[in-house]
Amino acid sequence: MARVLIVGAGLTGSLCAALLRRELPQRLSRLVLWDKARGAGGRMATSRGAQDPKCTADLGAQYVTRGPEHAEAHQRFYEDLLSHGVLKPLTAPVDGMMMKEGAENFVTPQGISSIVKHYLKESGADIFYDHRVTQIYLKNGKWEVCTNTGSSDKFDIVILTMPVPQILQLQGDIVNLINKSQRQQLESVSYSSRYALGLFYEAGTQIDVPWAAQYISNNPCIRFISIDNKKRNIESPEIGPSVVVHTSVSFGTEYLEWDKEKVQPLILDQIKEIIPDLPKPASIKCQKWRYSQVTKAFPGSAGQITLHAKPFLVCGGDGFTHSNFDGCIDSALSVLEALKSGF
Ligand SMILES: Cc1cc2nc3c(=O)[nH]c(=O)nc-3n(C[C@H](O)[C@H](O)[C@H](O)COP(=O)(O)OP(=O)(O)OC[C@H]3O[C@@H](n4cnc5c(N)ncnc54)[C@H](O)[C@@H]3O)c2cc1C
């Protein structure tokens, strides 16, 4: 029986937790998730408006695309989410969307973080937010994992699912466990950066555009806009609409080290160029995605890397595959296989 810690309550971490509970329940004495954030989702983030928590916007991932190459292998994951109403087919018009032949898009009526919450609930794990892991030590055959608040706990198995540069920031014995070639491979993983704005409106506000979402190709700052409730097919007179804006990667990279308070007005100016009649929102959230989508995955894209076998220390996440739902499923499945072979 093992005490297992999963670091990261994003899609990969939550799915690892659900799969462990599904497939190896008799091997778990305790399943714990720690995340540095205040809530679940990671880059599958759904934010609430300050004036009305029912008004929500997806600031990271927008929809789930089932690639034809994964349709069969991942069928059970899609069927599970569709049967629970977590996923629904995307039916709203998205201008400028490029679609691979045979691919299908799905939206999340309760927000994209509802996928992560679905898996967390299934896992029955003990989840602790505001827990930023800072150091990992190997002591008497167990992992001692420490947080920024000075607290620590001991585990038999640790699964790290954060973006790779955040794995490389960890201190303690883990620094010496990563050999030179693994370090070089980990350092080669790269991510794009971008900003996202969520604009939240009061009920009854009209946003008159003929699309639910639009990809923009001729603006230096803005790449994507979504009228989020319209995209998710949940338009209601009682809940205000919300708008999501993603910047281009070039803008995100140029302003990466700026304070987001200074970047927000630059983005708002550009939105006015695209939608001059856009009403003034009741509240705004600006999100900096330093690690947005993987531009170069871990060599071989095997889904995980085992840093230590006895006791187990394994890394997963989209950095080991690619940045979408299918990529995170592949990573979580690889982590599970690695654990099964070593249990
Ligand atoms: C702007 C944007 C748009 C996107 N669009 C799409 C899309 O339309 N469709 C799609 O499928 N995908 C999309 N993606 C990609 C998708 O969101 C990611 O591939 C996926 O969410 C990655 O999940 P993950 O669990 O591997 O990592 P993450 O979601 O990053 O989860 C890692 C978690 O680890 C936590 N963490 C980090 N460091 C520590 C630490 N030291 N201690 C404790 N916790 C820590 C973080 O808080 C985070 O919750 C998009 C991403 C972004 C940013």
From TrEMBL:
<feature type="signal peptide">
    <location>
        <begin position="1"/>
        <end position="17"/>
    </location>
</feature>
<keyword id="KW-0325">Glycoprotein</keyword>
<dbReference type="InterPro" id="IPR002937">
    <property type="entry name" value="Amino_oxidase"/>
</dbReference>
<dbReference type="InterPro" id="IPR040174">
    <property type="entry name" value="RNLS"/>
</dbReference>
<dbReference type="GO" id="GO:0005576">
    <property type="term" value="C:extracellular region"/>
</dbReference>
<feature type="domain" description="Amine oxidase">
    <location>
        <begin position="98"/>
        <end position="334"/>
    </location>
</feature>
<protein>
    <recommendedName>
        <fullName>L-amino-acid oxidase</fullName>
        <ecNumber>1.4.3.2</ecNumber>
    </recommendedName>
</protein>
<dbReference type="GO" id="GO:0016651">
    <property type="term" value="F:oxidoreductase activity, acting on NAD(P)H"/>
</dbReference>
<keyword id="KW-0732">Signal</keyword>
<keyword id="KW-0274">FAD</keyword>
<dbReference type="Pfam" id="PF13450">
    <property type="entry name" value="NAD_binding_8"/>
</dbReference>
<dbReference type="Pfam" id="PF01593">
    <property type="entry name" value="Amino_oxidase"/>
</dbReference>
<dbReference type="GO" id="GO:0001716">
    <property type="term" value="F:L-amino-acid oxidase activity"/>
</dbReference>
<dbReference type="InterPro" id="IPR036188">
    <property type="entry name" value="FAD/NAD-bd_sf"/>
</dbReference>
<comment type="similarity">
    <text>Belongs to the flavin monoamine oxidase family. FIG1 subfamily.</text>
</comment>
<keyword id="KW-0285">Flavoprotein</keyword>
